[in-house]
Amino acid sequence: MKSSFFVLGLALILPAQPILADITERSEVRAFIREFSVKQRQAAAELEPIFKQVEFQTRIIELMNRPAESKPWWEYRKILLTEAHIQGGVDFWERNRQALEEASSRYGVAPEMIVAIIGVETRYGQVPGNYRVIDALSTLAFDYPRRSAFFRKELEQYLILCREEGIDPTLPRGSYAGAMGAPQFMPSSYRHYAVDLNGDLRRNIWTDPGDAIASVANYFAHAGWRSGEAVAFAANESDLPAAAGARRIELAGETGPEYWLTLHNFQVITRYNHSPLYAMAAYQLGREIRARHDRES
Questions:
Q1: What is the value of pTM for the model shown?
Q2: Which helix or strand (DSSP H or E) is residue 250 part of?
Q3: Where are the strands (E) in 82-200, listed by range?
Q4: Is the separation of the CB atoms in 286 and 232 below 8 Å?
Q5: Domains (range + CATH), the chain
Q6: 185 bridge partner residues
Q7: Are 273 and 100 in contact, with CB atoms under 8 Å apart?
Q8: How far is CA 177 from the centre of its chain?
Q9: How far apart are CA 297 and CA 290, in angstroms?
Q10: Is 121 marked active-site?
Q11: Could you list the pLDDT tens digit for every one of the 297 residues in the chain?
Protein backbone atom coordinates (compact mmCIF):
# COMPACT_ATOMS: atom_id res chain seq x y z
CA MET A 1 0.00 0.00 0.00
CA LYS A 2 1.64 3.21 -1.16
CA SER A 3 -1.12 5.77 -1.18
CA SER A 4 -4.35 4.22 0.04
CA PHE A 5 -5.78 2.12 2.83
CA PHE A 6 -8.40 -0.58 2.77
CA VAL A 7 -10.96 -1.44 5.47
CA LEU A 8 -13.53 -4.22 5.43
CA GLY A 9 -16.19 -5.82 7.55
CA LEU A 10 -18.16 -4.89 10.61
CA ALA A 11 -17.03 -5.07 14.21
CA LEU A 12 -17.76 -8.22 16.14
CA ILE A 13 -17.83 -6.11 19.29
CA LEU A 14 -18.69 -2.44 19.02
CA PRO A 15 -16.37 -0.20 21.03
CA ALA A 16 -17.61 1.62 24.09
CA GLN A 17 -17.65 5.40 24.29
CA PRO A 18 -14.08 6.76 24.23
CA ILE A 19 -12.41 8.91 26.83
CA LEU A 20 -12.35 12.29 25.12
CA ALA A 21 -9.16 14.11 26.06
CA ASP A 22 -6.02 15.48 24.48
CA ILE A 23 -3.55 12.75 25.41
CA THR A 24 -0.59 14.93 24.39
CA GLU A 25 -1.08 16.68 27.72
CA ARG A 26 0.20 13.53 29.45
CA SER A 27 3.92 13.54 30.20
CA GLU A 28 4.50 9.93 29.11
CA VAL A 29 2.88 10.61 25.74
CA ARG A 30 4.99 13.71 25.22
CA ALA A 31 8.08 11.67 26.14
CA PHE A 32 7.13 8.99 23.63
CA ILE A 33 6.70 11.59 20.88
CA ARG A 34 10.09 13.14 21.68
CA GLU A 35 11.85 9.78 21.72
CA PHE A 36 10.21 8.63 18.49
CA SER A 37 11.01 11.92 16.82
CA VAL A 38 14.71 11.62 17.64
CA LYS A 39 15.01 7.88 16.98
CA GLN A 40 13.02 7.82 13.73
CA ARG A 41 13.93 11.33 12.52
CA GLN A 42 10.37 12.51 12.21
CA ALA A 43 9.41 15.95 13.41
CA ALA A 44 7.39 16.06 16.61
CA ALA A 45 5.21 18.66 14.91
CA GLU A 46 4.07 15.90 12.51
CA LEU A 47 3.29 13.47 15.32
CA GLU A 48 1.43 15.74 17.73
CA PRO A 49 -1.64 16.27 15.49
CA ILE A 50 -1.96 12.48 15.19
CA PHE A 51 -1.94 11.94 18.95
CA LYS A 52 -4.32 14.81 19.53
CA GLN A 53 -6.92 12.72 17.66
CA VAL A 54 -6.35 9.59 19.76
CA GLU A 55 -9.23 8.43 21.94
CA PHE A 56 -8.45 6.14 24.86
CA GLN A 57 -10.95 3.27 25.09
CA THR A 58 -11.82 1.80 28.48
CA ARG A 59 -13.51 -1.10 26.69
CA ILE A 60 -10.13 -2.16 25.30
CA ILE A 61 -8.73 -2.64 28.80
CA GLU A 62 -11.78 -4.66 29.79
CA LEU A 63 -11.37 -6.97 26.79
CA MET A 64 -7.65 -7.42 27.39
CA ASN A 65 -8.42 -8.59 30.90
CA ARG A 66 -10.77 -11.39 29.78
CA PRO A 67 -9.44 -13.00 26.59
CA ALA A 68 -11.22 -15.98 25.05
CA GLU A 69 -8.14 -18.11 25.77
CA SER A 70 -8.95 -17.91 29.49
CA LYS A 71 -11.88 -20.28 28.93
CA PRO A 72 -11.51 -24.06 29.47
CA TRP A 73 -10.62 -26.03 26.34
CA TRP A 74 -14.01 -27.64 25.85
CA GLU A 75 -15.71 -24.24 25.91
CA TYR A 76 -13.09 -22.52 23.79
CA ARG A 77 -13.26 -25.30 21.20
CA LYS A 78 -17.00 -24.82 20.75
CA ILE A 79 -16.44 -21.21 19.72
CA LEU A 80 -14.19 -22.12 16.78
CA LEU A 81 -14.95 -25.70 15.75
CA THR A 82 -18.38 -24.85 14.37
CA GLU A 83 -20.17 -25.76 11.19
CA ALA A 84 -19.94 -22.14 10.07
CA HIS A 85 -16.16 -22.11 10.55
CA ILE A 86 -15.64 -25.44 8.82
CA GLN A 87 -17.87 -24.78 5.81
CA GLY A 88 -16.66 -21.19 5.69
CA GLY A 89 -13.12 -22.52 5.42
CA VAL A 90 -14.02 -24.85 2.57
CA ASP A 91 -15.76 -22.00 0.74
CA PHE A 92 -12.79 -19.67 1.34
CA TRP A 93 -10.47 -22.35 -0.02
CA GLU A 94 -12.55 -22.71 -3.17
CA ARG A 95 -12.76 -18.95 -3.75
CA ASN A 96 -9.01 -18.57 -3.33
CA ARG A 97 -7.72 -21.87 -4.68
CA GLN A 98 -5.05 -20.35 -6.93
CA ALA A 99 -3.63 -18.07 -4.23
CA LEU A 100 -3.55 -20.95 -1.73
CA GLU A 101 -1.79 -23.23 -4.17
CA GLU A 102 0.79 -20.56 -4.99
CA ALA A 103 1.42 -19.58 -1.37
CA SER A 104 1.54 -23.19 -0.16
CA SER A 105 4.02 -24.11 -2.89
CA ARG A 106 6.17 -21.01 -2.38
CA TYR A 107 6.39 -21.20 1.42
CA GLY A 108 5.87 -24.90 2.11
CA VAL A 109 2.93 -24.40 4.47
CA ALA A 110 -0.16 -26.62 4.42
CA PRO A 111 -3.10 -24.76 2.81
CA GLU A 112 -5.55 -25.94 5.47
CA MET A 113 -3.35 -24.34 8.13
CA ILE A 114 -3.36 -21.01 6.30
CA VAL A 115 -7.14 -21.16 5.91
CA ALA A 116 -7.67 -22.14 9.53
CA ILE A 117 -5.62 -19.23 10.87
CA ILE A 118 -7.62 -16.71 8.85
CA GLY A 119 -10.81 -18.45 9.98
CA VAL A 120 -9.88 -18.35 13.66
CA GLU A 121 -8.67 -14.77 13.49
CA THR A 122 -11.44 -13.02 11.55
CA ARG A 123 -13.86 -15.63 10.22
CA TYR A 124 -12.21 -15.40 6.80
CA GLY A 125 -11.96 -11.62 6.83
CA GLN A 126 -15.55 -10.94 7.87
CA VAL A 127 -14.84 -9.62 11.38
CA PRO A 128 -11.45 -7.85 11.41
CA GLY A 129 -12.41 -5.48 14.22
CA ASN A 130 -13.64 -1.93 14.38
CA TYR A 131 -11.29 -0.20 16.78
CA ARG A 132 -8.97 2.41 15.32
CA VAL A 133 -5.51 0.87 15.53
CA ILE A 134 -4.01 4.12 16.82
CA ASP A 135 -6.59 4.17 19.65
CA ALA A 136 -6.01 0.53 20.59
CA LEU A 137 -2.23 0.72 20.61
CA SER A 138 -2.15 4.07 22.44
CA THR A 139 -4.63 2.90 25.08
CA LEU A 140 -2.55 -0.21 25.76
CA ALA A 141 0.78 1.60 25.52
CA PHE A 142 -0.12 4.21 28.13
CA ASP A 143 -3.01 2.80 30.18
CA TYR A 144 -2.20 -0.91 30.45
CA PRO A 145 0.91 -1.13 32.67
CA ARG A 146 1.15 -4.92 32.61
CA ARG A 147 2.12 -4.94 28.92
CA SER A 148 2.84 -1.30 28.20
CA ALA A 149 6.41 -1.96 27.04
CA PHE A 150 5.21 -4.38 24.37
CA PHE A 151 2.49 -2.07 23.11
CA ARG A 152 4.75 0.98 23.04
CA LYS A 153 7.04 -0.96 20.72
CA GLU A 154 4.05 -1.92 18.56
CA LEU A 155 2.87 1.69 18.53
CA GLU A 156 6.30 2.71 17.30
CA GLN A 157 6.19 -0.01 14.65
CA TYR A 158 2.74 1.15 13.61
CA LEU A 159 3.85 4.72 13.07
CA ILE A 160 6.83 3.53 11.03
CA LEU A 161 4.56 1.24 9.01
CA CYS A 162 2.17 4.09 8.22
CA ARG A 163 5.03 6.29 7.10
CA GLU A 164 6.50 3.53 4.92
CA GLU A 165 3.18 2.58 3.33
CA GLY A 166 1.73 6.07 2.96
CA ILE A 167 -1.16 5.42 5.34
CA ASP A 168 -2.93 8.00 7.49
CA PRO A 169 -2.36 6.57 11.02
CA THR A 170 -5.82 7.69 12.17
CA LEU A 171 -7.69 5.58 9.58
CA PRO A 172 -6.84 1.85 9.91
CA ARG A 173 -9.12 -0.26 12.08
CA GLY A 174 -8.46 -3.60 13.72
CA SER A 175 -8.88 -5.56 16.91
CA TYR A 176 -8.91 -4.22 20.45
CA ALA A 177 -5.25 -5.31 20.68
CA GLY A 178 -4.24 -3.40 17.56
CA ALA A 179 -4.07 -6.42 15.23
CA MET A 180 -4.91 -5.72 11.60
CA GLY A 181 -6.47 -7.26 8.54
CA ALA A 182 -7.78 -10.74 7.77
CA PRO A 183 -4.79 -12.46 9.45
CA GLN A 184 -4.72 -9.98 12.38
CA PHE A 185 -1.06 -9.01 12.13
CA MET A 186 0.41 -6.76 14.75
CA PRO A 187 2.35 -3.84 13.21
CA SER A 188 5.74 -5.51 13.71
CA SER A 189 4.47 -8.68 12.03
CA TYR A 190 3.09 -6.65 9.14
CA ARG A 191 6.43 -4.93 8.58
CA HIS A 192 8.34 -8.21 8.65
CA TYR A 193 6.01 -10.75 7.07
CA ALA A 194 3.22 -9.11 5.01
CA VAL A 195 3.48 -10.09 1.35
CA ASP A 196 2.28 -8.64 -1.95
CA LEU A 197 1.24 -11.83 -3.75
CA ASN A 198 -0.36 -10.32 -6.84
CA GLY A 199 2.37 -7.80 -7.64
CA ASP A 200 0.24 -4.65 -7.37
CA LEU A 201 2.83 -3.04 -5.01
CA ARG A 202 0.38 -3.14 -2.08
CA ARG A 203 0.62 -5.49 0.88
CA ASN A 204 -3.13 -5.42 1.33
CA ILE A 205 -4.03 -7.85 4.12
CA TRP A 206 -7.40 -6.12 4.56
CA THR A 207 -9.30 -6.79 1.36
CA ASP A 208 -6.95 -8.84 -0.83
CA PRO A 209 -7.30 -12.51 0.22
CA GLY A 210 -4.23 -13.46 -1.81
CA ASP A 211 -2.00 -11.06 0.10
CA ALA A 212 -3.50 -12.22 3.41
CA ILE A 213 -2.96 -15.88 2.49
CA ALA A 214 0.64 -15.36 1.40
CA SER A 215 1.37 -13.25 4.48
CA VAL A 216 0.22 -16.02 6.83
CA ALA A 217 2.24 -18.57 4.87
CA ASN A 218 5.33 -16.35 5.00
CA TYR A 219 4.91 -15.90 8.75
CA PHE A 220 4.70 -19.66 9.30
CA ALA A 221 7.67 -20.31 7.04
CA HIS A 222 9.81 -17.88 9.02
CA ALA A 223 8.56 -19.45 12.25
CA GLY A 224 9.95 -22.80 11.11
CA TRP A 225 6.99 -24.73 9.71
CA ARG A 226 8.11 -28.12 8.38
CA SER A 227 6.28 -29.15 5.24
CA GLY A 228 4.56 -32.53 5.40
CA GLU A 229 5.13 -33.08 9.12
CA ALA A 230 2.36 -33.82 11.60
CA VAL A 231 1.16 -31.31 14.20
CA ALA A 232 -0.22 -33.36 17.09
CA PHE A 233 -1.93 -36.61 17.91
CA ALA A 234 -4.18 -37.81 20.70
CA ALA A 235 -2.54 -39.64 23.57
CA ASN A 236 -3.58 -41.22 26.83
CA GLU A 237 -2.62 -40.50 30.41
CA SER A 238 0.25 -42.99 30.48
CA ASP A 239 1.96 -41.83 27.25
CA LEU A 240 5.27 -40.06 27.55
CA PRO A 241 6.72 -37.59 25.05
CA ALA A 242 8.36 -39.36 22.14
CA ALA A 243 12.08 -39.23 21.47
CA ALA A 244 11.43 -36.99 18.45
CA GLY A 245 10.71 -34.09 20.79
CA ALA A 246 6.96 -34.41 21.26
CA ARG A 247 5.47 -32.63 24.24
CA ARG A 248 2.49 -33.91 26.16
CA ILE A 249 -0.21 -31.41 27.03
CA GLU A 250 -3.38 -31.81 29.03
CA LEU A 251 -6.55 -29.95 28.05
CA ALA A 252 -9.79 -29.65 29.99
CA GLY A 253 -12.33 -31.69 28.06
CA GLU A 254 -16.04 -31.55 28.74
CA THR A 255 -16.04 -35.00 30.38
CA GLY A 256 -12.49 -35.08 31.67
CA PRO A 257 -8.85 -34.41 30.69
CA GLU A 258 -7.69 -34.72 27.08
CA TYR A 259 -4.07 -35.66 26.47
CA TRP A 260 -2.17 -34.77 23.33
CA LEU A 261 1.37 -35.23 22.10
CA THR A 262 2.34 -32.05 20.26
CA LEU A 263 5.12 -31.88 17.69
CA HIS A 264 7.34 -29.18 16.20
CA ASN A 265 4.65 -27.72 13.93
CA PHE A 266 2.34 -27.29 16.93
CA GLN A 267 4.99 -25.09 18.53
CA VAL A 268 5.16 -23.11 15.29
CA ILE A 269 1.43 -22.36 15.59
CA THR A 270 2.05 -21.03 19.11
CA ARG A 271 4.40 -18.47 17.57
CA TYR A 272 1.28 -16.94 16.02
CA ASN A 273 -0.58 -17.02 19.33
CA HIS A 274 1.10 -18.34 22.47
CA SER A 275 -1.99 -20.11 23.81
CA PRO A 276 -1.98 -23.93 23.40
CA LEU A 277 -5.78 -23.68 23.20
CA TYR A 278 -5.47 -21.42 20.17
CA ALA A 279 -2.92 -23.72 18.53
CA MET A 280 -5.04 -26.81 19.11
CA ALA A 281 -8.20 -25.14 17.84
CA ALA A 282 -6.42 -23.90 14.71
CA TYR A 283 -4.95 -27.36 14.10
CA GLN A 284 -8.29 -29.14 14.55
CA LEU A 285 -10.16 -26.60 12.45
CA GLY A 286 -7.62 -27.01 9.66
CA ARG A 287 -7.95 -30.77 9.87
CA GLU A 288 -11.75 -30.57 9.59
CA ILE A 289 -11.56 -28.13 6.68
CA ARG A 290 -9.08 -30.35 4.84
CA ALA A 291 -11.24 -33.46 5.33
CA ARG A 292 -14.38 -31.78 4.02
CA HIS A 293 -12.55 -30.06 1.19
CA ASP A 294 -11.12 -33.36 0.02
CA ARG A 295 -14.51 -35.06 0.19
CA GLU A 296 -16.16 -32.32 -1.85
CA SER A 297 -13.40 -31.92 -4.45
A1: 0.89
A2: strand 247-253
A3: 131-132, 173-174
A4: no
A5: 23-66+129-205 (1.10.8.350), 69-125+226-296 (1.10.530.10)
A6: 180
A7: no
A8: 9
A9: 10
A10: yes
A11: 433 333 333 334 444 445 457 999 999 999 999 999 999 999 999 999 999 999 999 999 999 998 888 899 999 999 999 999 999 999 999 999 999 999 999 999 999 999 999 999 999 999 999 999 999 999 999 999 999 999 999 999 999 999 999 999 999 999 999 999 999 999 999 999 999 999 999 999 999 999 999 999 999 999 999 999 999 999 876 675 554 678 999 999 999 999 999 999 999 999 999 999 999 999 999 999 999 999 998
Name residues whose C-beta falls within 8 Å of residue 101's C-beta, 6 or more positions apart in sequence. 111
Cα(55)–Cα(19) distance, rounded to whole angstroms?
A: 6
* Residue/partner pairs of 25-33 with CB below 8 Å, 24 or more apart: 26/142, 28/142, 29/138, 29/142, 32/141, 32/142, 32/152, 32/155
First and final CA of the chain: distance in angstroms? 35
Catalytic residue among 28, 75, 121, 164: 121
